[in-house]
Amino acid sequence: MTQQNAQAKPSEPAKPTEPAKNAGPAEPTDPASQANPTILSLLADWANLCTIAGVVSGLLGIYFAAQGKLQVSAAMGVIAVVLDCFDGPIARSTKNRPAHMPPLGLQLDSLADAICSGVGPAVLVLAVGDWNSLLLVPAALIVVAGVTRLAYFNVYGLSGGKFSGMPIFYNPVVVALVLLVLWAVAPGAAVGGAAVAGFAVAILNVAPFTVPKLRGRFLKGFLVFCFAQTAVLFVYAAQGIGS
Known about the structure:
Elements: H1 3-7, H2 46-66, H3 70-93, H4 101-128, H5 136-156, E1 162-164, H6 171-185, H7 190-206, E2 210-212, H8 216-239
Antiparallel strand pairs: 1-2
């Protein structure tokens, strides 16, 4: 401040500005007043359509298990897993995806996992044992452990880029692999093997250890394994192995 300005006569304080006439108080924005997207708008998204295709595959797996076509049931469960691996990359590659779609897609994916990787393997275990009531124990554990870990993941997500416990989408692959091997080398042990596999995946789903997220060559290798497993299961179905 210059000396001249310092000695200048202080200006009069500005008068407070009067509020504009007829101007009421500002109304808060009500989130509920904003129109929500329609339910069917979820279908206008390629990633969600991929997830829904996985749900259909999982449903077919349950249907074929009930029909006694166990090899096809196991194959459809693995196909559902493959589709589950693709919905995420499709979502990330979609340009100008609406802001509301990622959280909706997450919920849809979680519900799909509960059906395809929880209920699906549980029904397959029951079907392999000719619906023996004793197999309700491992079957129930698969579903309970699966939905429990899904609820946990929906709240806490990944920890340092890793899953807490074995991700539920491994369940159909593990159960199908056990059956695939036993049907070929020891068909009489398939029922016991299915029960053990059911107990195993349920425990691993909620066990206190971490599993890295599949990325890069590991994801590609996993998908190749799933495709090969599916092909072998369809060959089994054609040749009556495991029937």
